[in-house]
Write a structure and sequence with these properties.
With about 450 residues, the chain is α/β, with parallel strands linked by helices. It has helices spanning about 5-10, 30-40, 75-90, 115-130, 150-155, 170-175, 185-195, 215-225, 260-275, 290-295, 340-345, 360-375, 380-385, 395-400, 400-405, 430-435; strands spanning about 45-55, 55, 70, 100-105, 130-140, 160-165, 200-205, 230-235, 280, 285, 300-305, 305-310, 315-320, 325, 330-335, 350-355, 375-380, 410-415, 420-425. It contains 16 helices and 19 strands. A nine-stranded mixed β-sheet has the order 9-10-8-7-6-5-4-1-13, with helices on both faces. The radius of gyration is 22 Å and the shape is globular.
Length: about 450
């Protein structure tokens, strides 16, 4: 294949920030089961904490997050108070667990919480858990609401990495997606953060948005390079109005078609690499000296609900409405409604709505998918040996790879008497999610077209 095959780019497959993916969670895993899982963790189990704050000032048209709009402080104060109670409740089940290696505040816009609430919650985390000396403490920020005071508060909290949602710098694109933030706003936000000592900055960019053109993508990348963040995430816009009704505010006729979407992705990727960034997996880029680029080189990169990450906490504990956690035993997801979440916590119950206990097959396939997504390579024989599974259990997945092998996206190597080594070719890297989907036992006929309602492969 000498030209990109748009039929591959338009296929619908999961992003594989987990396996099995969240739609397969069920209510058979509840508060009691989760409590037992937490209590079984020991000192060898290092922790990663994810705190979800489901509030923004306004809802951007493109947003795919679980969040709601508020301009009042009272709901934010009340939410912070209940989040503190959940921290105490979870910590009471984790008395034997190891230290916290990673904290991530997501949303929504977590920095909308009053600054005193942020400080109080961080203090509560410090007395409830042991922090590792090399703790990474990260937060997601809306540049429009970053002030000098907030930057100093984040530094006091111990935050050492911040992610800013940029999406695109072009005014027409910003108007079309309901998020107007001039370049100067972002420049000032980065200046406040760096002046407060927060040097590790991430920018989130998007392609596939309405009104985007090759010229606007180049301009956005050039402005990003001028501000020199440590990492850049380049996400394809996932238009899923059946899941996020506010996306209906986006005029679908103004979205780039499949050919233009692929062109925009390739232009942005090439410009970032030419700008000195190392390509990380499907959609991340990092400066060569950044810990993510080093993790890629050392084959230590991981993938979770925040995407590609250097998070080395063994157990991910989710806190807050709709947050997802991942322990050795399986996944859990919190209640998505604020009132029901609050009611459960006030009753002394872990606010779990659903989850999934992992089988041996889930663990095997999850490991294969993570290796393909992070390293573009997986030795199937070695992974099957690790999980004590007969390699022939993967024969169906290998059959699904045949067309990708034929078209130069994947290659298989190794001796005839062993399960092969799967490698995604350089040409095939934009389609890596399709290679991963071949090992997804929950995805029906994933390799034969856009039937499942997931985001586009590219």
């Amino acid at each position: 294949m000498t030209q990109p095959d748009l039929s591959y780019a338009m296929r619908s497959v999961p992003r594989y920030t987990s396996y099995p993916t969240a739609p397969h969670f069920h209510d058979g895993v509840g508060s009691d089961v989760y409590g037992q899982w937490l209590e079984r963790l020991g000192p060898q189990d290092t922790l990663s904490l994810y705190l979800h704050v489901p509030y923004c000032r306004d809802i951007c048209h493109y947003c795919g997050c679980h969040t709601k709009a508020t301009r009042k402080e009272a709901p934010l104060v009340a939410y912070a108070r209940t989040l503190g109670s959940e921290i105490e409740l979870v910590a009471s089940h984790l008395e034997q667990a190891g230290p916290v290696k990673h904290i991530h505040w997501g949303g929504g816009t977590p920095s909308l919480l009053p600054e005193q609430s942020l400080l109080d919650l961080t203090g509560l985390l410090r007395v409830s858990f042991t922090f590792a000396d090399d703790l990474e403490h990260a937060i997601e920020l809306d540049p429009r609401f970053v002030t000098g005071s907030l930057a100093q508060t984040l530094a006091t909290m111990g935050v050492n990495r911040a992610s800013l949602g940029i999406q695109d710098f072009d005014p027409a694109v910003q108007e079309a997606i309901g998020r107007v933030q001039p370049y100067e706003t972002v420049r000032d936000a980065t200046s406040y953060l760096r002046s407060a000592g927060l040097r590790a900055l991430n920018f989130d960019l998007m392609y596939g948005l309405p009104e985007q053109t090759p010229d606007t993508i180049r301009d956005t990348v050039n402005k990003t390079l001028d501000l020199a963040p440590s990492r850049i995430a380049l996400f394809g816009y996932a238009h899923v109005p059946w899941m996020r009704k506010h996306q209906r505010l986006i005029d679908e006729s103004r979205l780039p078609d499949s050919e233009r979407r692929l062109e925009l992705a390739n232009l942005a990727r090439e410009a970032l690499i030419e700008g000195g960034y190392v390509a990380i997996g499907l959609d991340h880029f990092a400066k060569p000296e950044d810990s993510m680029a080093i993790a890629l080189q050392n084959r230590a990169l991981k993938r979770n609900f925040q995407g590609y990450t250097t998070d080395n906490g063994e157990q991910l504990v989710g806190l807050g409405v709709s947050s997802i956690g991942r322990l050795d035993q399986g996944y859990i997801q919190n209640i998505a409604d604020v009132r029901h979440w609050e009611r459960a916590i006030l009753a002394g119950q872990l606010p779990v709505s659903k989850g999934l206990a992992l089988s041996t097959d889930d663990r095997l396939r999850g490991r294969i998918i993570e290796m393909i997504m992070t390293d573009y390579r997986c030795d199937l024989q070695a992974v099957c040996h690790q999980f004590s599974v007969a390699p022939h259990m993967l024969d169906g997945s290998l059959a699904l790879l045949e067309e990708l092998v034929r078209d130069g996206i994947v290659k298989l190597s190794g001796s005839a008497d062993k399960a092969p080594i799967v490698e995604v070719t350089e040409f095939g890297q934009p389609y890596v999610r399709l290679a991963a989907a071949a090992f997804d036992a929950y995805l029906n006929d994933a390799m034969r077209g856009p039937k499942a309602r997931h985001s586009l492969a590219v």
